[in-house]
Amino acid sequence: MSTAAINDVKRPNKIHRYKPKDSSAPGDDPTPDYMNLLGMIFSMCGLMMKLKWCAWCAVYCSFISFANSRASEDTKQTLSSFMLSISAVVMSYLQNPQPMTPPWQ
Amino acid sequence: MSPAEARLNPIASRSSQRILFPRRLRRTCFHLIQRVNMKLTLALSLVLLVFLCQNVGGKKSHKPADLDDNEFAEFEDFDDEGAEQEATVEEEADFPSESDDIVKTQAKKDDDNEEEEDEGVVENDDDEFEHFTDEDEFEGFDKESRPGKGKSHEVPDLKIAKVPIHLRTNWDSFYLEMLMLAGLGVYFLNFLAGKTKNGKLAQAWMSSHRSILEENFAIIGDDGLSKEAKGTGVFNKESENVYTLWCSGRTCVEGMLVELRLLKRQDLINVMTTIMKPASDQIIVKVTMDASSMDKFCFCIGQKKVMAKLLKEQPDLGQFTEKKAVENYNLPESFQLQSEIGEATSIVLDKKVCAYLEKYEQQIEYIHISDQYSGAKSQYDENQSKMPDVRPSLVFCFNVPGKGKTKTSDVDGMLPLMKLVFYCVDKVGRLALSKEKRLKAEKNRAKAAEGYLKAAHSQLQEAAQLRREEKRRLAKEKIMNEEDPEKARKWEERESKRDMKKKQAKTKMMKVKGM
């Protein structure tokens, strides 16, 4: 028992609290931010220029942004980007119910 | 045949005259014929009714009844005429443009040829009926506006309206949309699978390392937000592939941050990139020492590929360390050694540590021990005039075996490396350099600090110079805009006097120095 006490390295009186990393600093992975921005751009293009493929790309971008997002990030932004991309897809199909044509046709 | 009848029907009377029979025989025959006639008439009328019904159904052509006998032609013709008239009356209702046809069929009643009659229905312009198209014949007759004529010559230009393909009617044409949705579905499924796998790996690490952590630290797992320092015992989820754990309450150590940097299994694109370019899950252990516990030295050993990157990113490595040969310590060739003080290096790289480095060559990415650790420098801040915030730290980076295809058992195999961490921590805490080495280290740090001061000073000077230039430029502009020549001349005089004074002061200083 005494050896255990000697070897005990724990110091309960020397506890330091965890300081979370500063989230405002640009992290080592900018993927979610880029994808978020790209998704918004694609959504706007899809809505304004009525391009279906733009709207679909926006959905994909917002999905990728959501998958790579950090826990500290605001979910509202990701959700709003997602909603915008969905609305872009729906609007482009309401305005023009034709199916998408691939570029090689 | 009676004379009255003969008058009425001259043809019949002529035919009856041909028959040369005695009178009595003629009379009986006539009576017989009358009776037969009645029956025949009935039969004929039935047949004609049938034909009428057919005509109402749409058949234009109707076969006139065969002429059985010339004797009954009178009845036949009458019936035929009636049927024809009825048929044409029906047709007139359907085809008002073909009003000519009524006239034609009536005119052609003597003609038994069906084909001609049919043709007559189709053909509008016939030589026989030219007088019907003659403008002089009728009043108010407009040849051009004949309704029947236009249709046969002009092919109406039909414009088929483009009906948009409706979603409900034609699913097959939306194959691209189906593909997109399928892709999204696959991505989402992969997200769930990857997230679960990463969670399982973190859980496995925790369960295998819990005992050693509990032996060494007072609290395990702290999010930094709760009021009391109570160990949660679980990871903080930074993202779906990054898990952190803060442990504190140990001798010589301020705290230890364990960061599980797993592969982005939740992102399909990353998964595909990993298939092409295999990468490993990483465990980064950062031990922050107490300020007084560690001696001043800088040391780093790691894989060659990583060392190049570290030298660029870590300012302390670039400033204090030099490349040293690994052969002196009998280490594998894949490692590169950067060290400031040789004595410290030899103390750290003792037999046990060297054995670990040899055994776990693939799994040890790098070991960075430094009292001037500040973390990776930001790429935006190239000219650092201010000394970065430094803490004495030990950073260990380990690769989980499996190269991406990691199993939970692989994570359990990381336990010996955690033991290595604690061994090094204790060693560095006990490390004591000789006096001269300590002085050398302090000299290096003083030099570095001076360098920072100079950089800061030069920056300040530059800023001051720029401000002065700006001031002068503004004053000049003001004078240039000044219309009064008197004022301009006065300002110029003042400026020249100032310049002269400056030059004199400089020459005076030179003279004093020379003396």
UniProtKB/TrEMBL annotation, chain A:
GO biological-process terms attached to the record: protein insertion into ER membrane
Subcellular location(s) per record: Membrane
Stretches the record annotates as Disordered: 1-29
Gene Ontology cellular-component terms listed: endoplasmic reticulum membrane
Signal sequence, start to end: none
InterPro entries cross-referenced by the UniProt entry: ASTER (IPR005351)
Main location as per UniProt: membrane
GO-annotated molecular function: protein folding chaperone
Keywords: Membrane, Transmembrane, Transmembrane helix
Family, as annotated: Belongs to the Asterix family.
PANTHER family on file: CGI-140, PAT COMPLEX SUBUNIT ASTERIX
The name this protein goes by in its record: Protein Asterix
Species the sequence originates in: Dreissena polymorpha
From TrEMBL, chain B:
A GO CC term assigned to this protein in UniProt: rough endoplasmic reticulum membrane
GO molecular function, one term: calcium ion binding
Membrane-related topology note: Single-pass type I membrane protein
Biological processes annotated in GO: endoplasmic reticulum calcium ion homeostasis
Region (Disordered): 79-153, 475-515
The keyword Membrane appears for this protein: yes
Family designation: Belongs to the CCDC47 family.
Xref: PANTHER family: ADIPOCYTE-SPECIFIC PROTEIN 4-RELATED, PAT COMPLEX SUBUNIT CCDC47
Protein name stated in the entry: PAT complex subunit CCDC47
Organism: Dreissena polymorpha (Zebra mussel)
